[in-house]
Amino acid sequence: xxxxxxxxxxxxxxxxxxxxxxxxxxxxxxxxxxxxxxxxxxxxxxxxxxxxxxxxxxxxxxxxxxxxxxxxxxxxxxxxxxxxxxxxxxxxxxxxxxxxxxxxxxxxxxxxxxxxxxxxxxxxxxxxxxxxxxxxxxxxxxxxxxxxxxxxxxxxxxxxxxxxxxxxxxxxxxxxxxxxxxxxxxxxxxxxxxxxxxxxxxxxxxxxxxxxxxxxxxxxxxxxxxxxxxxxxxxxxxxxxxxxxxx
Length: 247
Description:
By secondary structure, this protein is α/β, with parallel strands linked by helices. The chain folds into three domains: 2-59, no CATH class; 62-154, hypothetical protein PF0899 fold; 158-246. The protein has eight helices and eight strands. It has helices at 2-20, 25-39, 62-85, 102-110, 112-119, 157-178, 197-203, 207-214, and strands at 93-99, 121-127, 139-144, 147-152, 190-193, 219-222, 233-237, 240-246. Helix 6 (157-178) packs across helix 7 (197-203) and helix 6 runs parallel beside helix 8. The longest helix has 24 residues, at 62-85. The protein is flat, with a radius of gyration of 23 Å. The mean pLDDT is 93.
């Protein structure tokens, strides 16, 4: 599977480089020489000696394209429902209900893992219709054509904690970049200080997950910055100040 992914990536990026060449010749030539010819010296000496790419109908899977079009449509409806309810995409939610015809459900089920990840929901249900119980304020609704998505906006403490962890992880990733760390670098430790007691309690169960997300061996919480003599960086999370350090 990994080799298949690499093969598709190679074909896609090389084709894009050839197509970009008329508009960005210097960049295209640089990429061609330092990436493609470096990995495959048998290629022509210059990107300008390559033939213009032609579509290969044998590589198309129209049914798969239709399934992913439906996936993206449903994900877009989830985003619209989130926006209406003022819920960030990084905040996980418990459930989405997709109300549509069976053919839509079948297409979405084949890409359900992608839907759950992109929509950031724990569960998806498929229905052809719903009752009045879904008209309450708990549900945010978005509709397009014959597809309607009902998004459960209730956030348990567990979901709030996971969402807070993802907000903090985003700040840590920003700090990593600011300090010049490479994406592959594994940090020794990340320190977070001066969360309020409720935030600290909510996030405590997600510290190991956060460590994996930000590529660090350990995440430590501190009540006060003075507990550790390091360079702290100030951020705001949900309108409250929080301090982060990397060691």
